[in-house]
């Protein structure tokens, strides 16, 4: 029930990397119904190169017995449709009956990457502005400051300001 309600795609594979479980979120992400992939190789819904990368994650980080999830894999995967998307994949394995089961939790991070790119663009605009710019948090601490502002308040780098209280930096007359 929990897997069926999850927003992340959940896929369980047998020892030969054939699908044994397929969540509704996996159907939404990959575009295949469970009936189309159960019993089929992982190659059905990701590229062969990505299958090898995922297999390597299991072989490198997961032993022969039950093991905790490893650090997530971040990167692009190419779906069976040919579309490439950025994802976060968390993998784990566990003994299951006489064999092993491999579990993948797959999150499409397209929106996160778009937001990060926008933030980087914003930061570049702030950093390169000849005008002094700052963003102050509700607690009156520096959240963002550019080099032009750092020069005005006589610090070597704008990064020295981040997190500091305004009253630490500004003269009391201001």
Which features does this protein show?
5-stranded antiparallel β-sheet, elongated, alpha+beta, two-stranded antiparallel sheet, 174 residues
Q: In percent, how much strand structure appears in the residues?
A: 25-35%
Oligomerization category of the chains in this entry: single chain
Helix-strand sequence: HEEHHHEEEHEEHH
Characterize the biggest β-sheet.
5 strands, antiparallel
Task: Enumerate the spans where pLDDT stays under 50 for 5 or more consecutive residues.
Answer: none
Q: Biggest sheet, strands in spatial order?
A: 2-1-5-4-3
Category from helices, strands and their pairing: alpha+beta
Q: Kindly report how far apart the N and C termini lie.
A: 59 Å
The number of helical segments is 7
Tally of strands: 7
Mean pLDDT: 83
Helix content: 25-40%
Q: What is the gyration radius calculated from CA atoms?
A: 24 Å
Shape, please? elongated
3D structure, described in words:
With 174 residues, this protein is an alpha+beta fold. Helix content is 33%, strand content 26%. The protein has helices at residues 2-5, 24-30, 34-37, 48-61, 110-128, 147-152, 166-169, and strands spanning 9-13, 19-22, 73-78, 84-96, 99-108, 134-136, 142-145. A five-stranded antiparallel beta sheet has the order 2-1-5-4-3, with helices on both faces. Strand 6 and strand 7 (142-145) form a beta hairpin. The longest helix has 19 residues, at 110-128. The relative contact order is 0.11. The model has no long low-confidence stretch (mean pLDDT 83).
TL;DR?
The protein is an alpha+beta fold and 174 residues long. The protein has helices at 2-5, 24-30, 34-37, 48-61, 110-128, 147-152, 166-169, and strands spanning 9-13, 19-22, 73-78, 84-96, 99-108, 134-136, 142-145.
């Amino acid at each position: 029930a929990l897997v069926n309600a999850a927003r992340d795609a959940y896929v369980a594979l047998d020892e030969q990397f054939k699908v044994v479980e397929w969540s509704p979120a996996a159907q939404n992400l990959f575009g295949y119904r469970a009936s189309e992939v159960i019993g089929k190789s992982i190659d059905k819904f990701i590229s062969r190169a990505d299958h090898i990368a995922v297999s390597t994650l299991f072989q490198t980080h997961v032993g022969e017995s039950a093991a905790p999830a490893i650090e997530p894999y971040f990167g692009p995967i190419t779906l069976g449709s040919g579309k490439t998307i950025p994802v976060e994949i968390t993998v784990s394995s566990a003994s299951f009956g006489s064999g092993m089961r491999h579990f993948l939790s797959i999150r499409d991070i397209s929106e996160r990457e778009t937001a990060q790119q926008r933030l980087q663009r914003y930061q570049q605009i702030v950093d390169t502005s000849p005008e002094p710019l700052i963003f102050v948090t509700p607690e009156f601490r520096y959240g963002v400051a550019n080099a032009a502002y750092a020069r005005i308040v006589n610090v070597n780098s704008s990064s020295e300001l981040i997190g500091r209280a305004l009253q630490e930096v500004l003269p009391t007359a201001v």
